[in-house]
From TrEMBL:
Its main location: membrane. The chain crosses the membrane at residues 6-23, 86-106, 112-130, 264-287. Keywords: Cell membrane, Membrane, Transmembrane, Transmembrane helix. This is Type II secretion system F family protein. The lineage of its organism: Bacteria, Bacillati, Bacillota, Bacilli, Bacillales. It holds the Pfam family T2SSF. It comes from Evansella alkalicola.
Length: 288
């Protein structure tokens, strides 16, 4: 009981001190970058702790990796502020786990096991959140690669029919305007910039950077090298790239099929056990 009470009181005191140190210093920053985040009420304390510990300086390489993933996953968001808020959210989760473990421990008559459980969950939070970010980044890249061969084939077909490459890209984007695939979301943004008079070269380079996919970078580079020539040369180059991309699409489809099959194994085992119990229980009752 005493250990649980001490742990809870210390956690509460630390959080209150951090809130007092933060004051209203981070109010405008939180208001500007509050989208997509939870536990915003804990953000001032978390941001204050980040600055006091100078996490950006102490974990510079980790921060750079995190910023790179966030820039790919959320290209429309300012990278550095979003990264700060993302780390603040991780710290906020940790504080909530500490407080939750302590409070549950006190309600459970001072059960230290609940405190330990809260600490274990708090230690796992950073790894789980970073892993989730990795999974989202990987899924986004695969979604883009999955749609690339169809896009490249359509552009090649339109160019071969006499359309300019810029108009071909605009038409392909407009065909999938309502599609929520990240490739077409980025293409819609690129097309808007082209219609507003921005340089084609600049828009294509920006598109490649925002997507962060090597296959798209190769495609945009090929387009930029050949688009002034147009005609059969560009069409042929796009068809060659499209052939390689179709093979990668097959690999992704196969991988996703295997992942879906593996996810079904556990529910099938549960159903088998349930059916076995339903059949076996009456037999056991008869023999019992």
């Amino acid at each position: 009981m005493v250990e649980t009470l001490i742990f809870t009181v210390v956690t509460v005191v630390v959080v209150l001190i951090l809130f007092l140190m933060a004051g209203k210093k981070y109010s405008s920053f939180i208001e500007e970058n509050k989208a997509d985040f939870q536990f915003l009420f804990m953000a001032p304390a978390s941001l204050s702790l980040m600055d006091k510990l100078r996490l950006h300086e102490r974990m510079q390489s980790r921060m750079m990796q995190l910023q790179q993933k966030i820039s790919i996953l959320y290209p429309s968001q300012p990278v550095i502020p979003y990264t700060r808020m993302y780390i603040a959210q991780i710290i906020s989760f940790i504080f909530v786990c500490f407080l939750g473990g302590g409070i549950l421990g006190l309600l459970g008559g001072g059960d230290v096991r609940l405190v330990v459980l809260g600490i274990i969950v708090a230690c796992l939070i950073p790894f789980l959140m970073v892993k989730k970010l990795d999974e989202k980044t990987d899924k986004r890249k695969k979604d883009i690669i999955f749609e690339l061969p169809e896009f490249a084939s359509k552009v090649a077909l339109l160019v071969n029919a006499g359309e300019t490459v810029q108009n071909a890209i605009i038409r392909c984007s407009e065909m999938k305007e309502e599609d929520d695939n990240p490739l077409y979301l980025e293409l819609n943004d690129a097309v808007t910039k082209l219609k507003n008079g921005e340089s084609f070269n600049h828009v294509m380079e920006e598109l490649s950077k925002r997507c962060g996919v090597q296959e798209l970078a190769i495609l945009t580079t090929t387009i930029l090298l050949n688009y002034r020539r147009g005609g059969s040369e560009l069409s042929l180059a796009l068809r060659e790239i499209s052939g390689d991309l179709w093979e990668k699409r097959k690999v992704i489809s196969r991988t996703r099929g295997e992942e879906a099959s593996s996810k079904l194994i556990f529910p099938m085992v549960l159903i088998f056990v349930a059916v076995l119990l339903v059949i076996a229980y009456p037999a056991l009752m008869i023999f019992g």
